[in-house]
Amino acid sequence: MRKIFPAEELARDARFIRQTNEQRLSDPRGARVAGGNASEQLAKLTPGLANGPDRARALMHGIFVGEIQALEGAGRTCWDFEVGEDVPLELKLDMARQCWDEARHCEISVSLAEHMGTELGEFAENGLLYEAACNPDPVLRLTGVNRALEGLAIDVFNTMKEFGNLAGDPVLEFCEDWMLADEVTHVKMGSDWLRRLTENDKERLDKALEFQKVVDRLFSFNGFRGEDDDSPIQLTRRFRELAGFSDDEIDEIADMSREARAEAPS
Amino acid sequence: MPEVSVTPESFEMVFYDSAVIGEVVAEVAERLGIEEAINLEIDEQSPLGRSKIVSYDPIELWVDGGALENTQRPRQFGKARSRDTIGRLLIRILDRRSGRFDDAPTDEELELSQFAAWDVHCVGRLERLGIGGQQKRRQYQFRNRHGFTDVADAAFSQLWDSSELSWTEIERISEECRSS
């Protein structure tokens, strides 16, 4: 079986339609983010918005396809690297555990889609998460996926959990809470492995953190994820601390979001 | 077939064809028994899904471009979604003209819960006419406005299955959920 499986060849049935990053970013109306659109003045995602429930549905579908890709990415990391030469066995065991979590998240997400009245494949799939999981350096891969994207997942799950709470929807609230707990663990794995594998390699550490920033920036349209009260997705400081982010790193993400917001078209 | 005028006539940001849109609007109108002219204005710059009735007589509708979009293929026209969007607007016009909604608030004054309840009644009837549907999606929206309870679910079924409720009946059903 070949190593580094290309994103465009991922197996999907006819229900799923892939939208490339080029297509997404070249949409003159703005890119889709957080179940809304980068061109609108996005308000915090709550049930009180006229389009709140529909935005939550779209976001939940984005989470669902993200879970599929996270499963595929963690699975590839188990296979793509050699024990001893590339990675320690314990890293592969962590990735195997993550596969188990992501598979469970896929099933939860399918049930939530049914609960929210969404058909699988109803919205276009973007493959950016898996693309980040194709990096040939395991440290960069884990930093991009587990710290940047799973870090974003912490913020998204917490926002969706609050959405469920505000709507009085215990199904959504509890499902998001359970998945959130796993995401914190996944981000912590990324933080721990980043530290361990670059202990004596400052250059590799810097490259990995730079890759993380690139991935974070790709998901910072209009600063939709931030600490302001009206940020559609709330940056979740406490959970990120638990997942191994330093205060400086969290500040940096918040600043990046603020800058993206200031640059956004009004 | 009713005469339909679509503005703009050509699109720069999305891959829509005003003639195709006009055909879909005319088809939905015909199935609802509307024979008069319809003006539809589309804001192609907006990928959101908002829509509104600008004028009840003559019929003038306004929609975000996103309200006619194929959600699987951004920027492409979505026939099913367009039928749903236009059908919901036109059936509300018919409701307002029926005399059963004379005491309803104006569109701008409707609360989210009132709008959700009326919308369920609209989409339920449209589905039986073969236009639109997505019952579970509408139920999720209704639950967000009326609670995730058995009472709300029973109210949803009543609104969905009924053929011609008045505004007073819709408001009563909605209010009973919120006060339960």
Short structural summary:
The complex is a heterodimer of chains A (266) and B (180). Chain A is mainly alpha-helical and 266 residues long.
How would you sum up the major sheet of chain A?
Answer: 2 strands, parallel
Number of helices of chain A: 9
Strand order of the largest sheet of chain B: 1-2-4-3
Largest interface: A-B, 36 and 30 residues
- Mean pLDDT over the full residue set of chain B: 96
What is the ordering of alpha helices and beta strands of chain A? EHEEHHEHHHHEEHH
Q: How many extended strands of chain A? A: 6
Mean pLDDT of chain A: 91
**What structural category characterises the helix and strand content of chain B?**
alpha/beta
**Percent helix range of chain A:** 55-70%
What proportion of the residues of chain A form beta strands (DSSP E)? under 5%
**Percentage of β-strand residues of chain B:** 5-15%
State the end-to-end distance of chain A: 49 Å
Radius of gyration of chain A: 18 Å
Number of DSSP strand runs of chain B: 4
Q: What structural class do the secondary elements of chain A suggest?
A: mainly alpha
The oligomerization state is heterodimer
Give the termini separation of chain B.
46 Å
SSE blueprint and pairings:
The complex is a heterodimer of chains A (266) and B (180).
Chain A: E1 18-19, H1 21-25, E2 32-33, E3 36-37, H2 52-80, H3 89-116, E4 125-126, H4 128-132, H5 138-167, H6 170-197, H7 202-218, E5 225-226, E6 233-234, H8 237-242, H9 247-263
Parallel strand pairs in A: 1-4, 5-6
Antiparallel strand pairs in A: 2-3
Helix pairs in contact in A: 2-3, 2-5, 3-6, 5-6, 5-7
Chain B: E1 4-7, H1 18-31, E2 38-43, E3 51-55, E4 59-64, H2 79-97, H3 112-128, H4 135-146, H5 150-161, H6 167-179
Parallel strand pairs in B: 1-2, 2-4
Antiparallel strand pairs in B: 3-4
Descriptive report:
The complex is a heterodimer of chains A (266) and B (180). Chain A is mainly alpha-helical. Chain A is globular. In chain A, a hairpin with a 2-residue loop joins β2 and β3. Chain A has helices spanning 21-25, 52-80, 89-116, 128-132, 138-167, 170-197, 202-218, 237-242, 247-263, and strands spanning 18-19, 32-33, 36-37, 125-126, 225-226, 233-234. In chain A, α2 (52-80) runs antiparallel to α5. In chain B, α1 crosses α2 (79-97), α3 crosses α5 and α4 packs across α5 (150-161). The longest helix of chain B has 19 residues, at 79-97. Chain B has six helices and four strands, in the order βαβββααααα. The mean pLDDT of chain B is 96. In chain B, 39% of the residues are buried. Chain B has helices at 18-31, 79-97, 112-128, 135-146, 150-161, 167-179, and strands spanning 4-7, 38-43, 51-55, 59-64. The interface between A and B is medium-sized, with 36 and 30 residues.
